[in-house]
Amino acid sequence: MSAINEEGEGLSSPRRPTHSPTLLRKGIPGERKPLKEKLITYYEQLFKGEDPSQGNPRFWEEFFLLKVNIQYFQTTMSEMKTWELISLKKSLSLLFVQCCTTLQLDDNVIRNINALQTLCVLLRSTFDKKLSDSSFDVIDVVIGFDSAECQMRNLVEALNKFLVHDYPASLKNLCLRLLLVMLTAMDNISQNMLLEYVMMNSVFETIMHLLSVPDLRDQHGYDAVVVLTLLVNYRKYEAANPYVIKLSVLDDEIALHGLGSVVSSVLTEYNKKYVPPTEEPVGIFGHISSFVSNMLVPVDTSQTRVKIDMAVLLVLYEAIHLNRNFITVLTHTKSLSNPVTPTTPNPAIDRSLPLPSSPTTPAGKQPTGLPQPTNLLGTFFTFSSIILQNIKDDSSVTHARLCLVIITCIVEDQFANSFLHDPNMTFPVTLHRASLLHRKPTKDGLSHVRPLACSLLDLMVEFMISHMAKNFKLDLYRKCLGVVHRMLCYQKRCKIRLNYNWKELWVGLLNLLKFFAASEEHLLPKLNIFAVAIEVVKIFNLFITYGDTFLPNPSTYDELYYELIRMQKIFEDVHSMAKRYSSPDAHSEFHSSASQLAANLVNVRSISAHFHPRINAWSASHHVTSITPEQVLEVVRSNYDTLTLKLQDNLDHFDKYAEKLNEAAFFTQLLRSVTNSVRETVGLSSVQQLTLLNELGSTS
Question: Within the chain, what is the greatest distance between any pair of CA atoms?
Fold first, then answer.
């Protein structure tokens, strides 16, 4: 320890005057020049292409006892021209090798920490120079291709050692920080050939260890999950990624539940911090009062917002998509109250920085009285209800799309569906609803204690009715309808009679068709709304053909017919629109979809054509001018026998979700966004010396 103190950069020099590390003041006669840091002198020698260790066999022991000067190193590297940096290949590779050697052979924690910080700043600074479109030049300059495989193997072995065994938390954080620096070195992670060495020398088991041990998970779980997210997505469409394979076959329940706990904690934290929009004042006096208040006290639009953590959402998707064993975690993991902000003082990812925001989620406010769901599925549904109600820009569309893709994967799983529909597994789930003109905003979205399938259907219906606008999100609607259709197929196949208010779904679907008919001129030049309408009609046909096998009771089936008859005009308008675009004279690019829609409407139109004359006849015979719903239902029940419908094929068929076929471009762009976001939050700040002293004292 004395060697550190003598250099003025050790653990006991808080009061020493500081000077610019890059320049010395010009001498004034009779005035003493300020001393330059010894480490700066060593850096200068390296940047001149010299070997500062020449003639001093213990040089590197002393070098790594000196606190890393991150600012000087980064500034000097950034000011170099490309050719200057390439000319320093020998010096930089020497520094890299000595860092790896220290990590592998030296048990001094201070040297290990400084070696890790040196590697972080060396790799970050070199990659920032963007020597070429690929990472080959960086590997050659910093490591050297001849020794890269050996050095990277030694480095990964050292990282695994520090992360698994009993070392200070700050050292473990730096190991994760170095991995994140490597993983986020390039915008396109799949072009980062440095990661090939992390593919060959796995850290997967180490990450699972961090997630399995509660104390380690609390301290490092979030960073470990982000590392796993990025590793799983490296070149996964181009080659066999060992992390994809290992995650897909993982059956360690403790590790899987640890992963679920981290995800659950992050989502729960977001849900707790979400504050629904305040209810708008009613009436002219309320609006005047609100206007005056805003004039006197302007709304603070610069308020820090809560981050939507796409890295955690992405790892949730990967776990659900790749590992069938993770479905049990969805159903059993509790929503934890543990802090997800790492409890260690120097986390790899600084989650306190301003980050991409949710459109309506101010930070720092805590709603009261909202009980949290008791499993990860319920927590995720609450989170999704927040995301799906605020779709205003490209980033929010991305968030919503990923949520819907995750839900699609869930409802395609047999075990997940059985849990969702189990009448003995009931939970209250908070679902937030958008503020719409025709209804007041809800102060809370707490549902009754019901099977989770009811909450999921509510979530899909809420999305369906709240986003009918000129900037219609066709892809999101198709995914939403796909979720509903998959749930109905499961109910039909397993004869599940879910006690749900099906009228809400039917009215939502009908309003969607009504919106299409009313917005034809605006939407059809740009969007194939016939494709969405086909999905809507397919759902209705599934109810018509098989509803008696899975609807709760015969009365509910009768109510379906009542809604179809009552909304006859909507179906006729949609049919007329489809016929116009499917006629030979239309020359429409949507000809095929329009023809299919017109054909699929045959049974719905037959129902209207069959029952309307009988309802009119009943009214005439009973001398009733205004018939009640109960009377209509009576006519319906007494005339089923004479109704003839056309049998339609494949109503309970759907194409299985296929990421590479349908979503590869989306996930490639999403990964780029996540990589950039993580890079911005991975700090290179030095470990606080007082913190390190405390950690060393507690472990000794």
Answer: 120
Strand partners, 305: 362
CA distances from 163 to 168, 181, 259 (A): 9, 16, 17
Residues 639, 695 within the same domain: no
pLDDT in tens, 236-246: 999 999 999 99
Asked whether the predicted pLDDT for residue 268 surpasses 60, the reply is: yes
Token readout for 272 is 């707790």
d(CA 561, CA 558): 5
CA dist 654 and 102 (Å) reads 57
Give the chain's end-to-end CA distance (angstroms, integer). Answer: 15
Check whether residue 148 and residue 88 sit in a common domain: yes
Do 47 and 160 lie in one domain? The reply is: yes
Residues 600 and 693 occupy one common structural domain = no
For residue 279, the model assigns a pLDDT of 47
141-159 residue pLDDT tens? 999 989 999 999 999 999 9
For residue 249, what are the contacts with CB-CB under 8 A and spacing of at least 6? 323
For residue 450, give the 3-state DSSP assignment.
Answer: strand
Partners of 427 in the β-ladder: 450
Tell me how many domains the chain contains.
2
Residues contacting residue 606 through CB under 8 Å, at least 6 positions apart: 643, 644, 645, 646
Q: Could you tell me if 196 and 137 are in contact, meaning their C-beta atoms sit under 8 angstroms apart?
A: no
Alpha-carbon distance of 306 to 591, in angstroms, equals 45
- Distance between CA atoms of 237 and 188, rounded to whole angstroms? 13
Which residue in the block uniquely carries the two structure tokens 């009993």? 166
Q: What's the whole-number average pLDDT of the chain? A: 85
Lowest-confidence range among 204-213, 222-231, 364-373? 364-373
Q: Is the pLDDT of residue 675 over 60?
A: yes
